[in-house]
Fold this sequence. Notes:
Two copies of one chain form a homodimer. The first copy, chain A, is of the alpha+beta class. Chain A has helices at 6-17, 48-55, 70-79, 87-94, 96-105, 119-129, 153-161, 217-233, 267-270, 275-283, 312-325, 354-370, and strands spanning 23-26, 39-42, 113-115, 133-137, 147-150, 166-170, 176-184, 190-192, 196-201, 204-210, 238-247, 250-257, 297-304, 330-333, 343-351. In chain A, helix 1 packs across helix 10 (275-283) and helix 3 packs antiparallel against helix 4 (87-94). At the A-B interface, helix 1, helix 11 and strand 14 of A face helix 1, helix 11 and strand 14 of B.
Amino acid sequence: MVGAGQLARMTHQAAIALGQSLRILADSRDDGAAQVAADVVVGDYRALEDLRAFAHGCDVVTFDHEHVPNEHVAALAADGVAVHPGAGALRYAQDKQAMRQRLTDLGVPCPRWAPVADPAELAAFAELVGWPVVLKATRGGYDGKGVWVVEDLSAASEVLESRTPVFAEERVEIVRELAADVARSPFGQGAVWPVVETVQRNGICVQVIAPAPRLDPERAEQAQALALRLAAELDVTGVLAVELFETRGGLLVNELAMRPHNSAHWTIEGALTSQFEQHLRAVLDYPLGETRRLAPVVVMANLLGGPDDVVPKGIDERVHHLMARWPDVKIHLYGKQFRPGRKVGHVTVLGDDLQTVRRRATEAADYLMNGHRRDG
Amino acid sequence: MVGAGQLARMTHQAAIALGQSLRILADSRDDGAAQVAADVVVGDYRALEDLRAFAHGCDVVTFDHEHVPNEHVAALAADGVAVHPGAGALRYAQDKQAMRQRLTDLGVPCPRWAPVADPAELAAFAELVGWPVVLKATRGGYDGKGVWVVEDLSAASEVLESRTPVFAEERVEIVRELAADVARSPFGQGAVWPVVETVQRNGICVQVIAPAPRLDPERAEQAQALALRLAAELDVTGVLAVELFETRGGLLVNELAMRPHNSAHWTIEGALTSQFEQHLRAVLDYPLGETRRLAPVVVMANLLGGPDDVVPKGIDERVHHLMARWPDVKIHLYGKQFRPGRKVGHVTVLGDDLQTVRRRATEAADYLMNGHRRDG
């Protein structure tokens, strides 16, 4: 796996059970996955020679992030390396404008969008959809980064004058955000988990509720069918996360990710086959595992770094208190340095009652990060 | 963790979630846990200097097996190393005669037993309990090794004339074997999992059924209370597995293990807190996790190496077929070379109906090891 963040770290956990050993390409020995895996190569995922040296001897190469240059992914495949997902699919997780174009060609509902090379094109688009307009970097955005909501042309000028390639989207009236997570094997087998609600704060996912509460069953099925269709149309192998906007008019696709995804961390304890095991089964071309839920309600809450004074060392006492108070809360720490807003871990709670489970996950995450319970 | 077998391998998986990194003392880089962990020290667990070098910088030292000389465990503690479980407790997992003596002193029901230094003492004991008599090596036996059922004095002579220290036990009429698995923290907190049935074949555990079918609830509670009491009396920290004989007259203690144990592998998927996480929580002096079951019935079946011609390479095709046929079976492979009778992995099945779940686990394990389904 190229990349050594928490996704590689948790994939390694799943690999161990399957009798596999995950080789990891890390930026540094301190990376979350590099701390815990036996076979770590330190190198630069942007350098083809590093990728080639890393891939030598791997059965399959897969990814913990979408930042490997697409031409390098294609070059590895041309070398004869099995790469999953492949360059052709990854392109649509790397280039958001290419993704929008492809989805539009496929007739998949999306927010209205347009390429905008200059203020005149933006003005024309805003004429059509109304201000404010959302500008999105075609590449590299995540967790609210690379997204600008602009009220008018002058507010957009700074973004347009920067060298960041962007395109424009209408600002959609959102009821809530959902995610449909699926997996697909090279053989073409697909598997789905229940559609989840992803609760956002400041553009960052703070909580995931599985299954999405009060979601119309037809709409849920529609979301799953759409995700499976996209996985097949785009030739995705491994996990495909389809982030969705639920609007009054229906579902719109927001983003695609072709790797294990935050919206499915709940599957580690909450589903018979986790997204990490499933991703491995898929990219290794094993048959996929059954995904049934192991509790009526599962809630995952991200641990987002709080104020700077909360250092990893200090977390230990809080873990102690949390375990004493809530022995049923499952803790996952990623071995990362704490920085405000950074995802440093998550907690998962299983149960029968949505309100109880959700409150517990919220309180546990807030306690771990802030040392107190958040109101409301 | 001293020792790098499958128990260390699975403990490492659990450590990752807790933000910990398990340092492992391995005999070789090829050991199951050494294949997958970042921090591996190769050394001899029988050499105090190797143990000392290994322990340097560890928060806590714990064990994947009971073969570390007890005096070395005590020496580490005298150095100021936190060792869990400690030498005082471990003694009763290392020396079966000392265990029998201590349990007898505590008034815990055991098979009748006696030290036998010579044929005359054995004859006197057999006079009391009748032939056949069971001879047990005081140290080092496992999976049926170190246990001899002898029909008469002449059959016993070979064992008695060897230099292996043994003691004698009555041969008990067993209804079935059970295990009560618990954990205890240095703080004295205890946690229990349901009592399980351990199905044996030729002295080797082949299957574990959780909870033990049709077990009288009072008897189950009695077994759990006994295990918790023993953990406290012997000052065990970490997991304590109490292997029990169920007889018409009640429960008798067979063996003790003070580490994660085969009888609780089912807890990885089947309980909210697995034995591996719980062992870590206990030895690190964290509060213990909730142990509730995530399915009505959970069955674990060991993968015991079959004929020599089944090599690890060949297993891959079988894994493929197994996953295709039974997508709900959870597979665990230990990264070990296959040898007849050797535990090389296990499978776990969760479900509602005992017969269905048990049949599936049996068939899956037999298929993986033998390439066909066993009759009956």
